[in-house]
Each structure stands twice: as structure tokens, then as C-alpha cells.
Amino acid sequence: MNQLALPAAALFFFLHLLCETIATFIKYNFSSLGRHMLGISLANIFGISSRGFVALYGIIISIVIEKNISSIQVYVYVYFAVLLLGAGFSLVLANIKITDSFMGGISHNELPLLKQLKMAFGTNNSKCAIPVRGITAILLGIQFVSVVIAYGLCFSLPHSRLLIISFVPLVSMLGTLIAILWVEPRLARMIDADNATGYAAAREFLRARAISFFFCAVSLLALPLLTPEIGA
């Protein structure tokens, strides 16, 4: 059973990333459809679910670390893959949009389900007037992955685990502030001026988050080199 702990933790963290990505996708796509409040309501469901998944991840990975079930190298390889999958999923959703057909209700249509889904979703190639690039893009998803790097450090710095974990909320707050004080208000003003730009906002935001996940995945590879036990 111990050998299943690390994969289980990785699964819960991946579900955490998926839920956060889907929440953003729904919120901005529904804005383009003029269903702002419905979009926020549905996005909140995935947002709350993501918190449950990351809490489960924290519990299980703590057991992995305390019982020395895995090594930092294995941990890094596993979560490198998870972050790449998260980045890939974010890029996929960035290029998809929810169409008006979706609001008609798939289940009430007599067409085959596959054809209904093709009608409900289309290709999103909208251009955003407000770019989210560079350091802003990197910081945009840092609140979701800082916990992975923190627990990675705990493998090789056992006497500083409490200190390391205590920095997670601080780093997470930085990413959150970038999103809610800089990126999202600008995108919101753009959407308020023209609801149709919600598709462009979704594409830009999700592409930026994918960049952040990819950057953190690459950074994670350097973790064993920066820790005393592994680097010695």
C-alpha cells in the first residue's frame, strides 16, 4: 500500500490543476455567452473541488515524506510529468470554446451525443487585446505549484519542514495578487465592454497558466541539485 501513496498524491494534485483550469475555462467562456453569474457559479464548484484535492495531496505527500516512502528524485520526476500534463491540458482548453449550442441543452437534442458535443464546442482562435506574457504569465500559476516545490524541499531539509511549509501561503498570495489585482481586472474591463471578448480572455489566461506550469516543471528538475543530501 505504501507504494501507492506517491501515485495517489500525484493524482490528487493533477485533479487540483484540472479543476482550477476548468474553472477558468468556464468562467470566461460563459462570459462570452452573456451568462456571467452562471459561469461564476459553475466555476466555484470546480474551485472548491480543487481545494479538496490539494488538501488530500498535502495529507498523503506528508505521509510519503515522514515515512521515507519515496526519494526526492522520484518525487521530482513524477511531478515534472504531472505539471507537464497540467500545462498540456491548459493549452488544449485554451484552444476550445463553448458555443451557443451548449446553452440549448445537449440532453434535449435528438442528434447523436458525439455530434451534439461537436456542435457545443468549437475552436477558439480569438486574439486578446490584453496580453499576459513574461513574468506575469510565470507568476500566474505559481500559487498552484508552490506547494509541490515546498514539499520537494522537505525531503532533504527535514529540520526545516515547518519553516518551508509556512512560506507556501506567502508565495501563493503573490500569485493570487497578480491574478486578482492585475490580470483579472483588466480582462474583466475588456469583457464588460464587449462580452464576445470572453473567448479571447479565456485563451490568453489559459495559455499564460500553461507557461507557468511548464516553467515550474522545469524548475522542479533542479531541486535535487539544490538540496544538501542529494548534492553532496
List low-pLDDT spans. none
For the sheet with most strands, the description reads: 2 strands, antiparallel
Shape: elongated
- CA-atom Rg in angstroms: 19 Å
Tell me how many strands there are.
2
Largest beta sheet: strand ordering: 1-2
Structural class: mainly alpha
N/C terminus separation: 31 Å
Order of helices and strands: HHHEHHEHHHHHHH
In what range is the share of β-strand residues?
under 5%
State the helicity in percent bands: over 70%
Average the pLDDT over all residues and give the rounded result.
87
Oligomer: single chain
Number of helices: 12
Structural description of this entry:
With 232 residues, the protein is mainly alpha-helical. It has helices at 5-32, 36-66, 72-94, 100-103, 113-120, 134-140, 142-156, 161-166, 168-193, 198-220, 223-226, 228-231; strands at 96-98, 121-123. The longest helix has 31 residues, at 36-66. It starts with a helix and ends with a helix. The model has no long low-confidence stretch (mean pLDDT 87).
Task: Give a short overview.
The protein is built from twelve helices and two strands. The chain is mostly helical.
What secondary-structure arrangement, pairings included, does this model have?
Layout: H1 5-32, H2 36-66, H3 72-94, E1 96-98, H4 100-103, H5 113-120, E2 121-123, H6 134-140, H7 142-156, H8 161-166, H9 168-193, H10 198-220, H11 223-226, H12 228-231
Antiparallel strand pairs: 1-2
Helix pairs in contact: 1-2, 1-3, 1-10, 2-7, 3-7, 3-10, 6-10, 7-9, 7-10
